[in-house]
Design goal:
Blueprint (H helix, E strand, L loop, with lengths): L3 E4 L4 E5 L6 H17 L4 E6 L3 E6 L6 H11 L12 E6 L9 H7 L4 H8 L4 E6 L6 E4 L14 E4 L3 E5 L2 E4 L4 E3 L2 E5 L20 E6 L2 H12 L13
Parallel strand pairs: 5-13
Antiparallel strand pairs: 1-2, 2-4, 3-4, 6-7, 6-13, 8-11, 9-10, 9-12
């Protein structure tokens, strides 16, 4: 099996499945992630999925690298099994130009109208490949090819929480105010990270997301509900 193990300090190692960003490679990552979570080998602390690899973190007092790697190798025979489907979320987005300051410029650079860009962005069911950069930041693919454009040459010092953005073939929602170089095309009123929730991070690797356009009045109403702690994010989870 074409995998390799790389060291990540004295309490972790990576299981690498490939070099690119694609669903088949990520499916193998997620399958191993699920199997190790279920098997719970002694001393395993956590596994962290990425686009193409799984980081395995262990407690060196309770176990050893050799023992944990042997457990991982035993599960690798099942890494080609399809992982269970994640949750499907329907996230509201307001694409007003003042909430998506790059919308007009980005659409013009791609030879599209703003309306066409919005329609394309909302036409796809996105897959959460991984979380990274900050808590709750979901790297979602695959953006329609017509919308592909590299990150901005000059990142912003401040990107507001809830900003909906694109870069390359990926899209995301910024869970916090932070620096960022993605193209901002709208705003989501639903916090993707909320420390008051039992599970603070809304999305998980393996989940799917659809963006649904809402007008400014609906955006403002949802923002007010979220700020007051009256919005239940589970209402955004699609029923099977």
């Amino acid at each position: 099996m074409d995998v390799r193990f790389t060291t990540a300090g004295d309490t972790a190692f990576n299981v690498e499945f490939g070099e690119g960003i694609d669903r088949p490679t990520n499916a193998r990552v997620m399958a191993l992630h699920a199997r190790l979570k279920s098997a719970a080998p002694p001393g395993l602390v956590e596994t962290v999925p990425t686009f193409r690899s799984l980081q395995v973190v262990y407690d060196p007092i309770a176990t050893s690298r050799r023992e944990v790697q042997a457990a991982v190798e035993a599960e690798l025979a099942h890494a080609d099994e399809a992982p269970a489907a994640g949750a499907l979320w329907r996230l509201p987005v307001c694409y007003d130009p003042d909430l998506g300051p790059d919308l007009v410029e980005l659409s013009a650079s791609l030879g599209l109208s703003a309306e066409r860009l919005i329609a394309l962005h909302g036409s796809t069911e996105y897959f959460v490949y991984m979380l990274g950069f900050m808590p709750g930041f979901a790297y979602m693919g695959d953006l329609p090819a017509e919308l592909e454009k590299p990150r901005r040459s000059e990142p912003r010092v401040r990107v507001p929480a809830g900003a909906v953005a694109t870069a390359g073939r990926l899209t995301t929602v910024y869970p916090w105010e932070s620096p960022g170089g993605w193209h901002l095309i709208g705003r989501c009123p639903v916090p993707l990270y909320d420390g008051s929730r039992p599970s603070p991070v809304l999305l998980a690797a393996g989940d799917r997301v659809r963006f649904e356009a809402v007008d400014r009045a609906r955006f403002d109403a949802l923002s007010a509900e979220a700020a007051a702690g009256r919005f239940d994010p589970d209402t955004l989870r699609a029923t099977p």
